[in-house]
Amino acid sequence: MSVTSQIENITALSISDTDKIQKYFEVFNGIFLGKENITTIHEFIEAVIKIPYGASIIRVVFNNLIDALKAKNINWELEEQILKTLIDNLAPMLMSFEEQDIAVRQRLADLYEQHDENINASVILEQGINRRILTDDDRFDWYIRIVRNRLEADDATNAEGFLNRAALLRPKIKNVPPASIVHFKFSQARVADSNRNFIDAARKYYDVSTTMDVAPEEQMVCLKSAVTCVILAPAGPKRSQVLRLIYSDDRTRQLPDFGILEKLHTNRLLRPEELVSFEQELQPHQRVSLPDGISVLARSVIDHNMLAVSRIYSNISIEQLGRLLGLDKNKVEDYAGRMILQGRLAATIDQVDEVVQFINDDDFSRLHLWEARVRVLCTDLENIVSGITRQEEVLAAKATAPASV
Q1: Which of 71, 94, 129 is the endpoint of a domain?
Q2: Rounded Cα–Cα distance for residues 262 and 209 (Å)
Q3: 45: number of Cβ within 10 Å
Q4: Which pLDDT value is given to residue 156?
Q5: Strands 347-350 and 355-358
Q6: What single DSSP character describes residue 355?
Q7: In this structure, is residue 164 part of a structural domain?
Q8: 87 Cα distance to chain centroid
Q9: How many domains does the chain divide into?
Q10: Where is the PCI domain (predicted)?
């Protein structure tokens, strides 16, 4: 007897719903769960979904089916096919079976994650994210799970979109476990890292590394990521703030890259040979070349060494600076000019004499004082001119007025 006929015969019996559910499941248990029987399994699902006026029974049968698949530990590709068949058959009556659809999607996402099919895991969750019965807390968890899968697949662009949606939901969540908040913050750090926003990434990684809900070994992983990102970040005041924060953490002394971190903090020159092992550990997105053909790390080192030189010299020829930085004269002038324009280097360039004049803190103070005095002088002169103009207008008005009789 076909599976469909067995289901129809059970449906026609005058027995309780509980007994019917048990018999329906006996039919399923009688099917050998092998690839050769996938058609029979599909037939069972299609027959159950067609039980007339049986929504409550169908829900229980499918819930039991999902639990049974987890327990039986069958071939994962076979389970994938069964779960996808369930989703397809539930779709036309989704309004009545949202809970089962969600359970199937979560189980299918579990399978995909276990087998490193992160894009498939993300897509199956994305397709169910708008189910009405999902609470804000549930949806927040789903968004974070989607983000993590997208990041595992090196898809930072889509990950950022779903992370932004999670951020909008965050003020509304009520009972999300602390682990979800940690994953949210960690995802923010990873997205910033993937987008090469290294200053923001370093700050966020460090934030996670100090969170009590994170295991000590994972805290150290995040701290190491924070150190990596602050080394890669463009030198300047913004990086210095984060650098001071990270360097002041005693745990950094345990990290292999502490020597580099210390040189950054103390404004000492970095040599290429000191960065070999560090560069080998970088992720692919951290190794990319910038539009001018130079790597992110090389740009960061040049910027840092430029600032380090500014702490040693009050002025230096462009040629000599090039020798220190390992660059030709034109590149030196370009990089120094860019840093000056971005407010990351206090200096001026004398293109005639080919000299870079660095401005130290005292020079800055004197310069600001001089500028302030010039502004006061200009204001005073403007007031004097305005006063003279008003007096001339008054005298002119009196001169043209008719004489009184």
Answers
A1: 129
A2: 19
A3: 20
A4: 92
A5: antiparallel
A6: E
A7: no
A8: 31
A9: 2
A10: 196-363
